[in-house]
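Q: Make up one entry.
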Amino acid sequence: MQQLEGVIDRSRVPDADDLKKYSLFFDRLYLIKLRGLQQFYDMLHKPQRKNLKRTKAELAYLQGRDFVTGIDETAYSDLIRRLTVRRLTASPMNDRYLDLVNATGKLADSIIKEKLHGRRFATSPYDRSKAAEVGEHLSDAYTRLFSVLCQGEKGDVDIAPICCRAPQKGIQDEVVSKETVLRIAFEQFPIPGPMSAWEDILEFRQEMQGKQWHFRRFLRDLAGTKQTEKEIKDDLEWTLHQYSEAMKLHNLKARNSLVEVFLIPVAEFVEDLVKIKWSKIAKGALGVSERQVELMEAEMKAPGRECAYVFEAQKRFGSRS
């Protein structure tokens, strides 16, 4: 199965708990933390310090599991230089990229000085809206830029930007891109609660690898079709609905079958206490095994099975956010 990696601005993921939903969707996350982008975030929200120690510990754990990779100005510049050496990027464009990376801090300092009159935080709704707008546009620019550069270096991995705003599209010929399809699909996933440990989430991903593979192939096919965002969302939700209804029907039949296997008349049960009938116990165990096989067959044949991974994620970790 081809790896799917996501790129997101670190400022959009202020807490390690927010990464749990992304971990259900991506195999790895690149967290971009540029000085200027962080300043824009700080203009809108005063830094929350009470969970800082736990957040750092969890991020260190995820980095150790090779799920999270931090990207700063140095890592960004090194990637650009590597691509230049490999002649994937021309030297003039290389300088332009480096200037863009270094521009975040200068722009943030300029807004603090000129627009906020030296204040470190936006105190009025107008200031907050302006800072948020500039910050989101910058965040999207760097996120998309890094995903393109990283894709050029790692051609065997599918890398997608996670942006604040949808890509610009024409009014008449709205075509859904890979980025848009992934964003719509991501909305269907739940946010695991605080009781969901990271070990449970990583174990779930391992157990559902086959269904995850099927789901990603489904998304790839959707990205290749010319549909509007509304149409692709409807297609995805309808496919998930079909599978959910099929599983409800199968589970209802399975419960009735299990009652037939284990419901023993009272007279027979009393008799079994005196004289154990191992054949009935074996028959019950065989019945459970048969039901498990039936479930696997039902899942493979169910309409909408392309979205089985989303269905299982919602069932395990709660409904979508």
About this structure: The two ends are 27 Å apart (CA to CA). The chain has two domains: 4-165, 169-321. Confidence is low (pLDDT under 50) at residues 171-175, 258-267, 284-288. The beta strands are 4-9, 28-32, 68-71, 158-162.
